[in-house]
Specification:
about 400 residues; alpha/beta; Dna Ligase, domain 1; six-stranded mixed sheet; five-stranded mixed sheet; 19 strands
């Protein structure tokens, strides 16, 4: 079996599915996908854990499948986090430069200054993402290390999450005997898998539509400038189909993936689908256009919500590369066309790229977050780990300091 130290594992804990993706670093420094495990997700609602035991069981099954395929024993993962509790804000930090040359300690100090914002007791900063550095008034600097100057400033995008939601993800992983190397915002992870660097430079909006949430990340000048999570997703489409066609939700989900289309103009005239009935009644044969009539309004609503969010940020006119949509819901036929119609921007469907191994298997929008988590881990191998121990600056330790009475129930 391969040593774990050579592998990176992304754990996409979604509302409708759990996906464990195993990546391996090659001698040439490339990244190969060597294992994939998926299992239906039970225990989450709109991206948030609502049932620990059910979530643990789903994670366990997905991880076991990935272990079997990859031939490794998984002990550490990069876990994704989403949900309407996610919030993003931009901050600014400034410090003096010691010895008049910018060193690693100066960069860390100015980022710490930017992180020093008032924070409610029930929230935690999970990402500090530098947008640019400014040395003695010179802006637009991506890496100030080694530069001469006396004053260092930075603009940073901070992503915060509810402490309890982050803690529940860690707890579920620990019950599966998994350490959490890092908690990663899911649209940020998807961006690692589905976006090109040129798109980030020109300005692009990544829209990740999963089962329970629609995640949004905006990039401009190569840096992330806005993040948000909307509490709507593919499950709403499934519910609409189940109610409208009077069919069980499991069948509605299957019908959605097999026959779903977001634009009536793309449906062939006279095409029909078989729809199972409830209560033991006989299946019915309906025109496929009837299915589209339930999907299109909900998809339009999702993209209208996204458009309002883009308008609110003020970055709508700066998206030179347009929009990239990804996530399981975006595999429906007609999604890019309808998105472009509603948003008024060029839209493409994004899928993981830039990896080897089982690249043909994971080249679907369904795996964007999972593969992105692996790529994030590949880039941040030396990042601080969120491990369950008493000391250090881990999420566990920070939460215990701020919510000792609540956390004591876990130990």
């Amino acid at each position: 079996m391969a040593k774990y130290a050579e592998c990176i594992v992304g754990l996409d804990i979604g509302t409708t599915k759990i996906a464990a993706i195993v990546g391996e670093m090659t001698p040439d420094g490339d990244l190969d996908i060597i294992g994939i495990g998926t299992h239906p997700s039970h225990g989450l609602k709109k991206g948030v854990v609502v049932n620990i035991d059910s979530t643990v069981a789903s994670i366990q099954r997905a991880v076991e499948e990935a272990e079997h395929m990859a031939g490794v024993e998984i002990s550490m993962v990069y876990a994704g986090i989403a949900g309407a509790h996610i919030q993003g804000q931009n901050s600014h930090g400034m410090t003096t430069v010691k010895d008049k040359e910018v060193r690693e300690a100066d960069i860390q100090r100015v980022i710490d200054q930017a992180r020093a914002v008032p924070m409610p007791i029930d929230r935690e900063i999970i990402h500090s993402l530098p947008q640019e550095y400014i040395v003695d008034g010179q802006d637009g600097i991506k890496d100030p290390l080694g530069m001469s100057g006396v004053r260092l400033e930075t603009k940073v995008h901070l992503v915060t999450a509810a402490v309890a939601s982050a803690q529940n993800i860690i707890k579920c992983c620990q019950r599966c005997r998994l350490n959490v190397a890092d908690i990663v915002l899911e649209p940020l992870a998807s961006a690692y898998a589905a976006l090109d660097e040129d798109e980030k430079e020109l300005g692009v909006a990544l829209i990740d539509i999963g089962g329970g949430t629609t995640d949004l990340a905006l990039f401009h000048d190569g840096a992330i400038v806005h993040t948000s999570v909307l509490p709507v997703g593919g499950q709403q489409l499934t519910n609409d189909i189940a109610i409208g066609l009077r069919t069980p939700k499991s069948d509605a989900e299957r019908i959605k993936h097999r026959w779903g289309c977001a634009l009536p103009s793309l449906v062939v005239e006279g095409e029909t689908i078989e729809v199972p009935s409830v209560g033991g009644r006989q299946p019915r044969v309906l025109p496929r256009i009837a299915l589209t009539e339930y999907i299109q309004p909900r998809v339009e609503e999702i993209f209208e919500l996204v458009r309002r969010e883009l308008e609110k940020t003020g970055f709508l006119e700066l998206l030179g590369s347009g929009v990239v949509i990804t996530g399981g819901t975006t595999i429906l036929e007609g999604m890019p066309e309808l998105a472009s119609e509603v948003l008024g921007l060029p839209v493409r469907r994004g899928a993981p790229k830039g990896v080897g191994g089982l690249s043909d298997v994971v080249s679907s929008p369904i795996y964007s977050t999972g593969v992105g988590l692996v790529r994030y881990g590949y880039k941040h191998l030396s990042a601080n780990h969120f491990l369950a121990h008493e000391g250090g600056d881990s999420v566990y330790a920070q939460v215990k300091k701020r919510m000792r009475a609540w956390i004591s129930e876990i130990f």
